[in-house]
Amino acid sequence: xxxxxxxxMTSAPFEVQDLESGCSIEERITRRIDEFMAGLPSPERLSxxxxxxxxxxxxxxLEGNFIYWMTGAYLSVGSEQSRSIILDNLREEVGDCHPGxxxxxAVAARAVPTDSDAMAVSQDxxxxxxxxxxxxxVRLVLMMAFFEGLIQxxxxxxxxxxxxxxxxxxxxxxxxGVCDVAHTRELFRALAAEMALDPAAxxxxxxxxxxxxxxxxxxxxxxDATRYSADAASRLTAR
Length: 239
Ligand SMILES: [Fe+2]
Fold this sequence. Notes:
CATH architecture: Up-down Bundle
Bound molecules: fe (ii) ion
Order of helices and strands: HHHHHHHHH
CATH topology: Heme Oxygenase, Chain A
Shape: globular
Number of domains: 1
Strand content: under 5%
Radius of gyration: 19 Å
Largest sheet: none
Structural class: mainly alpha
Number of strands: 0
Number of helices: 9
Distance between the termini: 71 Å
CATH class: Mainly Alpha
């Protein structure tokens, strides 16, 4: 007898297929993460101010928004399995006070966000907030799975920036380099449960939230460079 759809999808979460592209959603997410990692600048080639800016913009975004995004995911899902996975994630985030860990990390690296750090990412952050507010379960869980998958690979880069700023504070980067591996896996299980529950929501552009979050993360890392190249481009066209 054929295994029920929900059971098949939740026991093999990484096999969830994107009907549009034909490849697994996890493959598409992994490719996005690979591209992001390949585009990171070398820490040794950054100035102290550029290193400070990346840590400060990362802190400006993550300190006050991760719990909000994950709460949005909780409100948007329909299956008990997803609710329980997301609650576990939130319990750890709040119980271990991850925003406090991130604040200590930024303070130790002398990279507490300023007004201009917050302004540099504000439009891209607003776009993500508006997307989260739509409470679209499948797309939002996928966005969070992308985030957790990317962050655990991003942590060594962030830790190196802080170290080059003279910081020895490693709790935030150590914790997120490890626990987010399990979080990513669990969120893909939640995704499978949501797709099985609401097949209609699994059609169309599933990576909508992923793309918006990717743009925001690019702004965190490349804000200075992007501004520089936009200025350079406008100077060239003005000639
Ligand atoms: Fe966290």
